[in-house]
Each structure stands twice: as structure tokens, then as C-alpha cells.
Inverse folding.
């Protein structure tokens, strides 16, 4: 199989390689019921040593710069309450944590979750967190621009390997909230 984007040597339908995914991601793929069939989710094997976006794009194809997204875990706090959420933005942008995220979560303060919290609560590896397979109670805040990309490269739950999924898929994730301007241009 050939990946719809990038120059990957090994691309397979995600349902055919559940053993390559973390348990929560494999479970989400196995039980996916969205309008895009899970067979259209593509798993590509990648080198975990070149996971940094700039090096990754140079190695696997320059078109990936505008077709990849990042998923980060944030924490919103109000009073004694803390809410974890995920944010999905195109890789050429950064998450508007102090504006869009704080307002959406109704928090007085919002920040990126500590690495041990993000990995412990998701069951995924740092640098490979994906919105596919997150705890169902979490809000998944998705920048509207992600939905316009025909195929989006995102983490697979591990640093090794990525998923390529149609952009519109992100609006169908459990807990998905599509937000205009969640991702703001980097300086």
C-alpha cells in the first residue's frame, strides 16, 4: 500500500497493524464507527529518532509540513477543579492555551499538562500522543483548519509510527469540539 501523503517505505491500513499501536489507540481503531471507515486510517512506520517536525519533514517529504498535526494535552483549572483536554492543531501553528483553550474549558488558568500526567492519563508515549484513543470523557479541541486537510499525519500513540487519517475524521472523535482559531501562527 502507498501512503496518501509522504514518502514512507511501510504503509498499511491501521486495522491490520493493531500490535504496532498502544492499547487505547488500537481499541479506538478496532471499535471506530465514524463516517470514514477505519480501513482508511493508514499506519506508517517511522524512525523515532527523527520525530522532531523539521527533521521528520525533511526526511519523509516537504508536503507533510502543511499536512501534519500535533496533539497536546492541556489542563484547565478553576477553583479546586482541574480538567484535562486534548488540543489538535496543524503543526505550523501553536495552541492558543491562554485564549481559546481557557475560554472553552471555562478555566481561570490553562497550561500544558506535565509530561508524566499526559502519558499516564493517555497510555501513550510522549511525542506520539494522538487524539484517537483518548479517554472518552475528555474534551478534544480541534482547530477547524485541521478538518480542511484531505489527509492529516498525526501520532500513533508511540514515537515510532504515525497515523494518516482524513481531516474530517477529527470532528467525529468522542468529545470533539471544533474551534476556529485554536491554532495560531507561530512567530
Amino acid at each position: 500500500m502507498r501512503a496518501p501523503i509522504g514518502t514512507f517505505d511501510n504503509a498499511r491500513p491501521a486495522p491490520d497493524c493493531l500490535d504496532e499501536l498502544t492499547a487505547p489507540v488500537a481499541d479506538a481503531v478496532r471499535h471506530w464507527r465514524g463516517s470514514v471507515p477505519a480501513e482508511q486510517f493508514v499506519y506508517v512506520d517511522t524512525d523515532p529518532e527523527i520525530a522532531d517536525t523539521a527533521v521528520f519533514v525533511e526526511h519523509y517529504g516537504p508536503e507533510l509540513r502543511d499536512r501534519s498535526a500535533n496533539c497536546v494535552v492541556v489542563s484547565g483549572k478553576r477553583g479546586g477543579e482541574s480538567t484535562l483536554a486534548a488540543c489538535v492543531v496543524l503543526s505550523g501553528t501553536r495552541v492558543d492555551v491562554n485564549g481559546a483553550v481557557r475560554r472553552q474549558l471555562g478555566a481561570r488558568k490553562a497550561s500544558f499538562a506535565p509530561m508524566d500526567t499526559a502519558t499516564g492519563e493517555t497510555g501513550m508515549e510522549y511525542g506520539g500522543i494522538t487524539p484517537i484513543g483518548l479517554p472518552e470523557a475528555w474534551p478534544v479541541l480541534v482547530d477547524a483548519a485541521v478538518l480542511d486537510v484531505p489527509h492529516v499525519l498525526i501520532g500513533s500513540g508511540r514515537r515510532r509510527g504515525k497515523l494518516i487519517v482524513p481531516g474530517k475524521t477529527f470532528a467525529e472523535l468522542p468529545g470533539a469540539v471544533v474551534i476556529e482559531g485554536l491554532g495560531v501562527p507561530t512567530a
The mean pLDDT is 94. The radius of gyration is 15 Å.
